[in-house]
Amino acid sequence: MEEIIKIESIDTYNKLRGVSTRHPLITVVDLSKANRMPARTFNFGLYGVYLKDQMCGELRYGRRHYDYQEGTLVFIGPGQIVGMNTKERSFEANGWGLLFHPDLIKGTHLGRHIQEYSFFSYDVNEALHLSEEEREILLDGFRKIQAELGRAIDKHSKKLVTSGIELFLNYCNRFYDSQFITRDNVHKGVIEKFESLLQDYFTTEQGQLPSVSWCAGQLNLSANYFGDLVKKETGRSAQEYIQDKVIDMAKERVFDLEKSISEVAYELGFKYPAHFTRLFKQKVGVTPVEYRKLN
Predict the structure, then answer these.
(1) Is 70 exposed, middle or buried (0-12, 13-18, 19+ CB in 10 A)?
(2) How many whole angstroms separate alpha carbon 229 and alpha carbon 249?
(3) Molecular function (GO) terms listed (predicted)?
(4) Whether residue 277 sits in one domain with residue 157
(5) Which domain holds residue 228?
């Protein structure tokens, strides 16, 4: 079994890349001047953002491939496993890398809101494509953070560095929103497939409610990317979409007078009928029993 190498500190990472450590909790690396990562598997204990600053040809989304021209951003979060090999190096191109330890943002505004940047849990094949203008904005962000790290550490350093990272990530959020819209060919049909998946799921009576992660896996997407895509396309979270589908199916089934409300709940995958009744009333305004009588 292959050994997984843990990268739990900035210094460990910098030594692998052959660069000096200016700050114990953050590093900005010009990949063209750094050593390549060895062909091993790593467990990152850091947040990382990698910019491939070159034309890369095509990127795989799920089981299909799509062209892009101006490079891409790939994100990793603490606990993610990243495999490097000699043939396909996900992060090994000329460009930039920004890595920071979770301790850097403890007690900061960014630390309290880091979970809002869901792209740190996206798969590599769900990377952020960049236009030339977007690429230049993010390159400027890398350089400004790097310039601040070149200064002597003082009482302002942490605030300025974390503010720079937060601004950088906010631009990434904006560009991802744009990508969800402009790269419609990548996402075309995902909502339709999601709807069909739920229809088939309830038709076959699986005995439990489908989770967002299960649906995402069936569509070859990471849970966070899938959830963000559904939100952008429908205005509802993936969980809300599933719940609405459940209630839509329930409205039909409660009219079968040969079945009790509990039996309907079990058929739809609820472990406890009381949970079904509570969700039904929340969505419809009345209980299943009341709905059956009213109609």
Answers:
(1) middle
(2) 24
(3) DNA-binding transcription factor activity; sequence-specific DNA binding
(4) no
(5) 189-294
